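User: Let's play a game. I give you a shape written as tokens, and you guess the letters that built it. Ready? Here's round one.
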């Protein structure tokens, strides 16, 4: 019996050696399996579930299934065979020791061998396969042969239509201490790509519907590199879902916005990061109403707008085909949050002065740093709207290390409290505007480099500190560095003022200011005009190389 098994196995091996087995059984090739493979240099895979329905040997199809039962049977047969050999050897040894004739010992050994063969045959008879005998020996000697058998269930791994297959069948465990295993489906679902919902990103296809479907399904969304045309709003101002919109970079993950295109976000700790918002799509003009809007919710605490770009590449000379932003970002109820390392550019250098860079409405305790603003009517704007009728408007912005260039109003604070403008470059304003207009209380203007033609205007409020700034004007063009109206309790100290007709002026509504330690250079007329101010201290100010005394 065992010799027959061995012969069958050897026949199979002979057929496997030096042959290629084809997936699709082409004409003239009789050996077919799930995938093309060479018999040499491969290992057994999933032998417990070997489907042989498409395997041919000598043009004879093997249509049965060799499964776990055959493996178990093989193990039993091999054990029986080993036991028979041991029994035969022991019988011979015992017979020799006892002086039994060789013929008697041989007969006993033959009986043991027959018993083993009978056990093996019983296993074969119980195995539902036309290759059971070969399978028994194959399983017993499996480690000695290089044959790869493919399970058709592997096709499930390529499934893109069944959520229970594909990556749901693949495990994932990071090589770090303490990590736990999860399916790849669970891991990848932490951030969902808009491409999973059909977004193309070729700069020609309207991807609005794909983005909307992605947002409806998940709020942690990834925008891979591409140019995505968006013609409607994506998101919500009221669902408080705290979305996370993340791209690969503001020059690679681009949203080309139509007039009504843009993102809407709401909720605590939302994020918009590393995305490029580009004004206009197609051949016609487009004034984008609002590229990014923060929601009408009680609070959008702890949120962030970072590493993004809002770009118009359309010059005014495009005429009716101009593409630019009416508002880049409108941030409402935006508290304890961050705006950092973004680019806001609404045209080309010295070209367009239009729209808003950021329009803040009742936004409190904000860190704004590392941003660049160019070509806006109002680059950084505090609106007068009140929070839910409370009387509170904007408050407590730390505006530091930004660049403002070629805007009509570089910073405009229409109401509120405590704008801190620290260490910024505020350069080349539109001659029709003021570099800074402040109607808020407790302005701190410190350590900035400011170039303006018309004066910085401070009006109707009090508790101002203007210290350590450099005001760099244009001789014969720039008028007044600072003009204060109807404002009390201020400090103007340690500033350097160059090339202005006057450095500092105030009207009759101003009271209780300290003006000390300033250096005013190349001023052709009176350096300061404080004659209408009451309760003032003016000391140690140097004007054109001389200490001036009022």
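Assistant: Ready! My guess for every position:
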């Amino acid at each position: 019996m065992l010799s027959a098994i061995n012969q069958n196995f050897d026949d199979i091996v002979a057929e496997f050696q030096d042959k290629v087995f084809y997936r699709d059984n082409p004409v003239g090739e009789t050996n077919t399996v799930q995938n093309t493979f060479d018999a040499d240099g491969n290992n057994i895979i999933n032998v417990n579930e070997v489907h042989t329905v498409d395997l041919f040997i000598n043009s004879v199809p093997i249509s049965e299934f060799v499964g776990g039962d055959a493996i178990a049977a093989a193990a039993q047969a091999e054990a029986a065979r080993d036991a028979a050999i041991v029994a035969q050897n022991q019988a011979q040894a015992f017979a020799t020791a006892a002086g039994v004739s060789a013929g008697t010992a041989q007969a006993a050994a033959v009986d043991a061998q027959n018993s083993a063969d009978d056990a093996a045959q019983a296993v074969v008879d119980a195995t539902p396969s036309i290759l059971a005998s070969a399978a028994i020996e194959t399983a017993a000697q499996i480690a000695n042969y290089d044959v790869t058998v493919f399970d058709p269930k592997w096709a499930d791994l390529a499934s893109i239509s069944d959520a229970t297959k594909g990556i749901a069948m693949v495990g994932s465990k990071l090589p770090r201490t303490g990590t736990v295993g999860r399916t790849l489906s669970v891991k990848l679902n932490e951030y969902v790509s808009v491409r999973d919902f059909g977004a193309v990103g070729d700069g020609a296809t309207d991807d609005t519907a794909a983005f909307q479907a992605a947002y409806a399904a998940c709020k942690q969304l990834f925008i891979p590199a591409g140019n995505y045309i968006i013609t409607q709003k994506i998101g919500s101002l009221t669902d408080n879902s705290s979305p996370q919109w993340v791209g690969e970079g503001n020059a690679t993950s681009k949203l080309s916005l139509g007039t009504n295109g843009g993102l809407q976000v709401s909720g605590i700790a939302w994020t918009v990061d590393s995305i490029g918002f580009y004004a206009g799509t197609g051949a016609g003009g487009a004034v984008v109403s609002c590229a990014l809007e923060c929601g009408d919710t009680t609070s959008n605490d702890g949120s962030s707008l970072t590493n993004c770009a809002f770009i118009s590449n359309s010059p005014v000379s495009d005429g009716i085909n101009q593409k630019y932003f009416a508002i880049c970002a409108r941030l409402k109820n935006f508290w304890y949050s961050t705006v950092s390392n973004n680019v806001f550019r609404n045209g080309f250098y010295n070209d367009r002065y239009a729209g808003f860079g950021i329009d803040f409405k009742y936004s409190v305790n904000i860190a704004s740093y590392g941003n660049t603003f160019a070509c806006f009517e109002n680059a950084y704007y505090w609106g007068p709207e009140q929070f839910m009728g409370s009387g509170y408007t904007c408050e407590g912005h730390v505006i530091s290390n930004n660049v403002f260039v070629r805007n009509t109003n570089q910073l405009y604070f229409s109401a509120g409290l405590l704008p801190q403008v620290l260490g910024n470059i505020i350069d080349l304003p539109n001659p029709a505007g003021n570099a800074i207009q402040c109607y808020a209380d407790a302005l701190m203007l410190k350590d900035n480099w400011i170039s303006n033609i018309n004066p910085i205007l401070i009006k109707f409020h009090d508790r101002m500190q203007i210290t350590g700034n450099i005001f760099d004007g244009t001789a014969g063009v720039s008028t007044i560095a600072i003009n204060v109206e109807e404002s009390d309790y201020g400090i103007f100290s340690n500033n350097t003022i160059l090339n202005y007709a006057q450095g500092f002026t105030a009207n009759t509504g101003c009271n209780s200011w300290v003006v000390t330690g300033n250096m005013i250079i190349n001023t052709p007329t009176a350096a300061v005009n404080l004659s209408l101010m009451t309760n003032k201290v003016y000391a140690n100010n140097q004007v054109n190389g001389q200490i001036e005394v009022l």
